[in-house]
User: What shape does this take?
Amino acid sequence: MSDVLRVQWTIIPRTAPQPWLTCSRCGEPRRFRSSDKIRVNANGKRVDAWLIYKCTCCGSTWNRPILERRQVQTIEPDFLTSLRTSDSMLTRRFAFDVEGLRRRAGRVEEFDDALVIRNVLSESTMPTRQLEILCSVPEPVGLRVDRMLANELQLSRSRVQSLAKIGELVAFPPGSHLRRAVRDGMRLVIDLPGYSGWPAIRAR
Assistant: This one.
């Protein structure tokens, strides 16, 4: 018999990371956001492709390289078609490639607005005394663990920190911090004192 409710939370970010770049029109560093448009330039046997970003203040553009002087025969035809049509899945994949973006831009801002999809993995067969949350984060997100728990469990962030301090909230792997962004594979185990006073935590 078990008194543990195991759930999976899949965290889907709504806003892609945005690089800070010196805008040629504004004359100072500005955030740039993905336009979800890809520009392709085929010159003979070689192809260049860029994901177009726009300054959030003036709309000035920055072209983030995807392909540089690549020979056409080395590119998968389906991939090339996706580039030419600005396929939404492909543009999202590049927009959320935060490490690749940092190599081009240095400073990159991540955002905490995200959709949390909850699914029950296994139900408790007794009155629930412990909640175990497995975090699935398919794309990078700036959502802090403490804020996510506060939002989803309808608690104050101070209450979340208090639970961690007294050992009733434990994050794995060891060394994970509640004030940092949630990461894929993180596991959160919460003791549920006085369960009847807790909000509903089942899948939506």
Summary: DSSP finds five helices and ten strands in the chain. The chain has two domains: 4-14+112-197, 18-109. Residues 18-109 form one domain. The longest helix spans residues 145-153.
